[in-house]
TrEMBL record:
Annotated keywords: Membrane, Transmembrane, Transmembrane helix
Organism of derivation: Maricaulis salignorans
Protein name (record): DUF4386 domain-containing protein
Membrane-spanning residues: 16-35, 61-84, 96-120, 146-164, 171-193, 199-220
Pfam families, A to Z: DUF4386
Source lineage: Bacteria, Pseudomonadati, Pseudomonadota, Alphaproteobacteria, Maricaulales
InterPro entries: DUF4386 (IPR025495)
């Protein structure tokens, strides 16, 4: 690996990557915590169905926000590759591929949310509609965590790229590595030890902190000194 030399083009790409990352954070957290989360109780199918049918616009807006997040994620994967490829081409390409896999999985997984809506909105004469919709919503949660497995690997790779590129402080790279390990652990618990999953949830605060810090660092990337006139 070689240290990167900051150029005007590299600085512009970094700032654009930071902007995409900011949209991803806002759209992703907004969809999951602000819009969809208050409507869903996986322990109560009837209450969940009633909440979604009472706020169809809110439920659909959550899907739209996730779609925006996925579109920006695809762009971010390419931009981060362009920023860091000179430091380690193979690792940068691998990181991009893993992030794009995560993006495809999360985008495709939105069909589980759409399926839940179709079941609930066309439930006349359909037996166990509420229970079926809840299964689709639970499937979406598992599909999201499956995407985070690949994102966890991407985060570890990005952390190594940041650490060894010399472009920004190593502390941001360390934060991304830790965030990646949290994602991998959390997704593993969701699939293989679900009884521990809820207790692990507070650890995701580390991922929000690490990714937000990296996002802001990219967004505030300055132009090279030689351009200042």
């Amino acid at each position: 690996m070689t240290n990167l030399t900051l150029t005007p083009d590299l600085a512009r790409r970094a700032r654009l990557a930071g902007l995409f990352y900011l949209v991803i954070i806002i759209a992703g957290l907004g969809a999951e915590l602000g819009l969809r989360g208050p409507l869903i109780d996986l322990a109560d199918a009837d209450a969940t169905a009633a909440a979604i049918l009472a706020a169809p616009g809110q439920f659909r807006l959550a899907i739209a926000a996730d779609l925006v997040m996925a579109l920006c994620d695809a762009g971010l994967a390419i931009l981060l590759y362009l920023v860091f490829r000179a430091a380690a081409p193979g690792l940068a390409l691998s990181a991009m591929v893993f992030r794009l896999i995560q993006t495809v999985l999360i985008a495709a997984n939105l069909m589980a949310l759409q399926a839940a809506w179709l079941i609930l909105s066309g439930a006349d004469g359909l037996a166990d509609a509420h229970a079926l919709a809840l299964v689709s919503l639970d499937l979406h949660g598992h599909g999201y965590d499956l995407g985070l497995v690949f994102f966890g690997v991407n985060s570890v790779m990005m952390g190594l790229l940041v650490w060894r590129s010399g472009l920004i402080s190593k502390v941001f790279g360390a934060g991304l590595v830790i965030a990646g390990l949290v994602y991998l652990t959390g997704s593993g618990l969701r699939f293989f030890a679900p009884e521990w999953s809820a207790a692990f949830t507070p650890a995701y605060g580390v991922t929000i902190l690490a990714e937000t810090a990296f996002c802001l660092r990219l967004l505030l990337q300055r132009q090279p000194a030689q351009e200042a006139v």
